Amino acid sequence: MGLVVQKYGGSSVADAEGIKRVAKRIVEAKKNGHQVVAVVSAMGDTTDELIDLAEQVSPMPAGRELDMLLTAGERISMALLAMAIKNLGHSAQSFTGSQAGVITDSVHNKARIIDVTPGRIRTSVDEGNIAIVAGFQGVSQDSKDITTLGRGGSDTTAVALAAALDAEVCEIYTDVDGVFTADPRVVKKAKKIDWIAFEDMLELAASGSKVLLHRCVEYARRYNIPIHVRSSFSGLQGTWVSSEPIEQGDKQVEQAIISGVAHDTSEAKVTVVGVPDKPGEAAAIFRAISDAEINIDMIVQNVSAAATGLTDISFTLPKSEGRKAIDALEKNKGGIGFDSLRYDDQIGKISLVGAGMKTNPGVTADFFKALSDAGVNIELISTSEIRISVVTRADDVNEAVRAVHSAFGLDSDSDEAVVYGGTGR
Ligand code: ADP
Ligand code: ASP
Ligand code: MG
């Protein structure tokens, strides 16, 4: 039997009991004949608590130091997990991201993995150990500083290691039984998905379904690594994310027309008011934003008022980048030319994802009808081939998700989705 990479999220290792439970699961896989590499996240909400702490000593902590601080969270889990495994009579060794060969670029707080050289991990498992790796972190190739991969980045560590070690599968253990047709914390009648194609999962993840991080799915698709998302609290089969449908008994699982509904309240909207309606303006605005290394999501340009020749341009971005974006635009105000900036962090995004959208023109109309029946006002719209997203008031998001989920017949008529742990933070 081959090598498996297992990743345990923060809620799975939230306390000593959790760590002992996870240790037992890992030992079970080892006893079944696998070589096991386990990637761990920080315990519970440790990462959030460390960020809060940093902000108490400095309103905008330096990226390098914040990374140093945050990587401590995963180090605590990895060492405790190795101890718990040893206590069960098996040998385990823990490794930081840097020791595991996770090499990144030098963008602090959201570094990208550029190479994985897992020599030490390979040696460790070949010698019969269980290797435990701290997720979410790496080391910059250029500066040699410690970096982090962005929130939820342990998922990416796991898939990147699975690719580099040519693993059979990458198992992502979390606090729900798999990927559901909507966030089970919001939609009690959400259904577990048995299999989902990389493409649909990419869109769900990019639209806020944080059960898997977008970058991790991108990585898995590039290297064709099947992901099995499942609960560390139950023995149930979870969701397979892969390129080809799985077999279940003697029948093949089919691709759904609609995969699910995602929502996201982590973004804010910036509106650049009074922009001259002439070529080069959008380029100047988004150059300033990209020079500040900020990723944006949706963009809308309003028609210009004939009388003034001025227009407004709105875009959405992670709330955590809001301050930086405003500063970057203010700094370039003279060069760009605009009147003022508006910042709105009370927005939410709802997205419907499904391969069936390509061939079914009625989907868009039904989506808007469901939102209007729920009395939800739409502020921005964006689409891809297999996704439609709208921005609404943050307060409307949960209601809107439930309305859309029902309207597309996704509600389950049996068991309610179980959430085993976590605070949803
Ligand atoms: P972990 O700590 O294991 O990384 P996360 O909190 O990052 O866990 O991700 C699991 C959470 O993702 C679930 O508790 C659930 O609230 C949320 N979630 C959002 N969308 C979905 C979805 N479509 N299916 C399952 N879980 C989802
Ligand atoms: N601990 C990190 C976070 O909370 C990474 C992770 O959990 O994947 O974002
Ligand atoms: Mg996560």
Automatic annotation (TrEMBL):
Record-listed ATP binding positions:
7-10, 174-175, 185, 210-211
What UniProt keywords are attached to this protein's entry? Amino-acid biosynthesis, ATP-binding, Diaminopimelate biosynthesis, Kinase, Lysine biosynthesis, Nucleotide-binding, Transferase
The ACT domain is annotated at 270-346, 352-425
Instruction: Give the pathway listed in the UniProt entry for this protein.
Output: Amino-acid biosynthesis; L-threonine biosynthesis; L-threonine from L-aspartate: step 1/5; Amino-acid biosynthesis; L-methionine biosynthesis via de novo pathway; L-homoserine from L-aspartate: step 1/3; Amino-acid biosynthesis; L-lysine biosynthesis via DAP pathway; (S)-tetrahydrodipicolinate from L-aspartate: step 1/4
Q: Where does the secretion signal sit in this chain?
A: none
Which Pfam family, any one, appears in the UniProt record? Answer: ACT_9
Task: List the EC numbers from the record.
Answer: 2.7.2.4
Coiled-coil intervals, chain numbering? none
Kindly list the biological process annotations in GO that this record carries.
diaminopimelate biosynthetic process; homoserine biosynthetic process; lysine biosynthetic process via diaminopimelate; threonine biosynthetic process
Q: State a GO cellular component annotated for this protein.
A: cytosol
Give residues annotated as binding substrate.
47, 74
InterPro entries per record: AceGlu_kinase-like_sf, ACT-like_dom_sf, ACT_Aspartokinase, ACT_dom, AKii-LysC-BS, Asp/Glu/Uridylate_kinase, Asp_kin_monofn, Asp_kinase
Q: What class of enzyme is it?
A: transferase
The reaction(s) catalysed by this protein are: L-aspartate + ATP = 4-phospho-L-aspartate + ADP
**Alphabetized GO MF terms:** aspartate kinase activity; ATP binding
Q: Which family does it belong to?
A: Belongs to the aspartokinase family.
State the protein's purpose.
Catalyzes the phosphorylation of the beta-carboxyl group of aspartic acid with ATP to yield 4-phospho-L-aspartate, which is involved in the branched biosynthetic pathway leading to the biosynthesis of amino acids lysine, threonine, isoleucine and methionine.
NCBIfam families, per this entry? asp_kin_monofn, asp_kinases, PRK06635.1-1, PRK06635.1-2, PRK06635.1-4
Q: What is this protein called?
A: Aspartokinase
Species of origin reads Streptomyces caeruleatus
